[in-house]
Design brief:
This protein is mainly alpha-helical. Helix content is 47%, strand content 10%. It has a domain at 2-87.
């Protein structure tokens, strides 16, 4: 604080400095500083900070757009892979056949010609 008392205002050499601007580091009198967002700043630093939010808003809007598109692509890919995985599940699983606890006897397809024994016929005879 002793440094502020010994300093003169940057704009008014006859006035004693009341504060040091944290933006530029220069000393200013009470007439030259403004309370801006809880800090005492000079007019040039306030002008710089007032112009910055517009640029930051553009960056944040672009950042939000990029994140939205990236999220959409990520979800599209994940749901696509989930669909492919689900389509590869056998039909038995979808019908619920895998839930039965009893083993079903295997159905053997038997040709009628072999069951008749003596009545086997062939074409042309």
């Amino acid at each position: 604080m002793a440094r502020v008392i010994r300093q003169q205002c940057f704009n008014h050499s006859a006035s004693e400095a009341a504060a040091r601007c944290p933006g530029c580091g220069r000393f200013y009198c009470r007439e030259c500083v403004v309370d801006f967002e809880g800090r005492l700043l000079c007019a040039s630093c306030v002008a710089k900070l007032s112009a910055a939010p517009h640029f930051q808003w553009r960056l944040s809007a672009l950042r939000r757009l990029a994140l939205t598109v990236a999220g959409f692509v990520l979800l599209w890919t994940l749901f696509g892979l989930l669909g492919v995985a689900l389509s590869r599940i056998p039909a038995k699983v979808h019908s619920g056949a895998w839930l039965t606890t009893q083993a079903e006897p295997a159905a053997i397809e038997v040709d009628e010609a072999t069951t008749d024994g003596d009545n086997v016929t062939t074409d042309g005879e």
